[in-house]
Amino acid sequence: MTTKGKQNFIIIMALAVLILIFAALNPNFLSKFNIVSMAQSLAPYAIMGLGVTFVIATGGIDLSIGTTCIAAAVIAGKLYMQGMPLGFTIPVMIAIGTLIGVVNGILVAKLKIPAFIATLGTMMFGRGLSAIIVSIPNIFFPNGTWFNRIFSNYDGIPVGLIWVILFAAICMYLMYKCKIGRYILSIGSNEEATRLSGINTDKYKIIAYTIAGFMTGVAAIFWAASFATVATATGNGMELDAIAGVYIGGTSAAGGVASIAGSVIGAIMLVVIRSGLNFVLARFNLNLNSTYVTYVLTGIIVVVAVLMDVIKNKNAAKVKVDKKEKKQVKKG
Fold first, then answer.
1. CA 229 to CA 289: how far, in whole Å?
2. Is residue 226, in this structure, part of any structural domain at all?
């Protein structure tokens, strides 16, 4: 089993243990209603996580995805409330997400602005501009239409999970079978060496951020389909949940290593923790805010995941040095 396979296996085992613990503490955790509810909330975070995996694989970061997701949903929703056909909201949301992704890519790759600063700027810009454009606190999408059945809940079937699997398969192909993924991983491993080998690193950085933006626009579709009311003030922190899932799933914060399957598993783990804590706290009447408890656990898990990645990279570098020294000794 490869290192990546072992890591995914460990995460899956940890996820299974969490599910068993929450189910034992409150059997309602595994009710059909809650499973469908978790699947509905999973889809946007998992899809955003899949997109931002490409950015993190370059050694970058995208803090704008949460705000962009909501901005795309509320702007498209405002147009729908003004008479635009519901079907047209889909390309509008995708276009907004993709546009922000392209802007992020240009800022980082061409203008050489640090990714943290560039995407922080577009995050604030998107949040403010969408609030100005929409000008009302809540946007309403319809319930019980083809839109909900295709992207959220089809007669109790959480179709969002099917879409997540489909997009994960597409992202796996792009990351592991196409030159796009190979070059993105190469940039994350050693950008200067990649550039000197003749690869247009700026181009593939822009592609990485564009993919993240496109997937954010797609995530907005699932958010709008799952939650009929979308508030313009939401979106803060969504990017942190999506990025945390990517780190938990085994994608290296330093770049060069990416796990598409791990990003999905990481997103599932965060959704399970959030929902499970709600049920546990309700079961034992604990006067605690589940959101804050989730933040505490997520913070611990992310730090541990990144620390393990740092230790793994240090050990790998040490092994390379030892091998090089041994070769030199033999030649001597």
1. 23
2. yes
Whether 187 is covered by a domain: the verdict is yes
pTM of this structure: 0.91
Region of residue 211 (left: phi > 0; alpha: psi -120 to 50; beta: else) = alpha
Q: Domain residues for 126?
A: 28-314
How far is residue 229's CA from residue 197's CA, in Å, rounded to a whole number?
Answer: 50
Count of C-beta atoms within a 10 Å radius of residue 116: 13
Q: What is the DSSP letter of 88?
A: G
Taking each continuous run of H as one helix and of E as one strand, the counts in the chain are 13, 2
Q: Which residue, among 23, 18, 41, has the nearest Cα to 283 in the 3D structure?
A: 23
- Number of domains within the chain: 1
In a domain, 210, yes or no: yes
pLDDT tens profile 41-82: 899 999 999 999 999 999 999 999 999 999 999 999 999 999
What CATH number did the domain enclosing 185 receive?
A: 1.10.3470
